[in-house]
Protein: NusG-like N-terminal domain-containing protein
Amino acid sequence: MKKLGRQAAIGLDDDLLSWYVVEVRNGREGHVCRTLLASGLTAWRPVRSIKQIVRERGKAPRAQTRRVSRFGSYVFLQAERRLMEEGWLLSEVLNLADVLLVVREAGSRKAAAMPRGLVEFYRNSQPAERDADCPKISEGCKVRILVGPASGREGIVARVDRERVLRLTLLDPEGGPTPATIICEVGHVDLLELCRRPPTQTTSHKAA
Structure:
């Protein structure tokens, strides 16, 4: 991937930039994030620490801390909205090895910009707890967001990944789907209704 990020973004006001969500192959989040950074783009792969017990033959069990992706297979990418809407930057990102898709707005081919302030909130907040209610939340469930700039908004779960990270289609005040998409941790939502039919969700995949 050629250098294309900072050259296009130098001197730009933050109002012209947005954060987008890139889904990658399991275990390749760090590699894709480094590739995006090397290309001159701004990318972020949040991590969280987990503790596990390591047992080795002939030795006493010991605790070990391991860092894993906080948002599972998702990496956040900041880019100029104009370039994403024109499509050529989107195509460059999709052509990267290990990139599966860029999340798009529900019912659209337009890349979904994250709500303003959401990534900054995640940077300054602790990972959510994985509580006992996590297994109940699945695709099609209706939830309410409890924290962050989208607090109080309701959404329908479009996808649940291996780390119980949710991709939500936000609802309007009347309960209808909007184009807005949000990525959040399962511990940051309240389950309102089990398994409705998920709204139509379009994602940008690599060409077959």
The chain is about 15% helix and 35% strand. The first helix runs from residue 5 to 9. The longest strand covers residues 177-185.
